[in-house]
Design brief:
Layout (H helix, E strand, L loop, with lengths): L1 H21 L5 H8 L3 H7 L3 H13 L4 H7 L5 H11 L8 H12 L4 H27 L9 H20 L7 H16 L28
Length: 219
């Protein structure tokens, strides 16, 4: 049983690499080549390529929700949680396979219902993750939101997606640090809190921004 699980994990990893290289039109033999096995060996574990691709896509998406959730679980300060979540949601380079995969899936979602469902689920969970942090900050008096928490959360996820795509597309003036700083700048305006930057920062306690006049919206 353990060997079967390990083999499936290897095939999922190979499928992710093949998807990143060939896009959503990847063929079974290309995945087999990436895994160093025959196509028949893949079909021994999966009914077909679609089943494997769904598993590969679902596994790749875990980084953007479950892994981030785990990484902030021990951080009590909502401002630090927000900074950390933002820094983890942006690709470090154009070679980020998980983000390349998401960009590829986005182009196929209109034609593939399963991809659309996976991407919608991921988006909703990411929005919920941000919204939970924002509302925690409000309850503790740390954040003074300029908009409703749902609106801010949706905008933060949208900024992640937009800047992530630009990095994958190798925009010449946009890299990881600048993208994170741009998202943090919106988060500062939205939360009324002087969040840190993506650069190595001091441990000084962040001070609240007092120039923003918060405006609450119905969500």
């Amino acid at each position: 049983m353990a060997k079967t699980s390990e083999r499936k994990a290897d095939l999922i990893s190979a499928a992710q690499r093949a998807l990143a290289e060939h896009g959503s039109a990847v063929r079974l033999n290309q995945i087999a080549e990436a895994a160093g096995v025959s196509s028949g060996a893949i079909l021994y574990h999966y009914a077909g390529i679609d089943e494997l691709l769904v598993e590969a896509n679902r596994a790749g998406m875990e980084r953007f929700y479950n892994e981030r959730l785990e990484m902030i679980a021990s951080i009590p300060d909502p401002a630090e949680r927000l900074e950390r979540i933002i820094s983890l949601g942006v690709p470090r380079s154009a070679e980020d396979e998980d983000v390349r995969l998401l960009c590829s899936l986005g182009g196929e979602a209109a034609r593939n219902t399963m991809y659309a469902v996976l991407l919608t689920s991921l988006y909703d969970r990411q929005v919920g993750l941000y919204q939970g942090i924002l509302e925690l900050g409000v309850s503790q008096g740390v954040f003074h939101l300029a908009q409703g928490s749902l609106t801010i959360a949706r905008n933060l996820v949208a900024l992640e997606d937009a800047y992530g795509y630009r990095i994958i597309a190798k925009h010449p003036t946009l890299d990881y640090s600048s993208a994170v700083d741009l998202i943090l700048e919106y988060a500062r305006l939205a939360t009324g809190h002087a969040l840190l930057t993506s650069k190595p920062a001091s441990k000084a306690h962040p001070r609240k921004i007092t120039t923003i006049q918060p405006r609450r919206e119905n969500q």
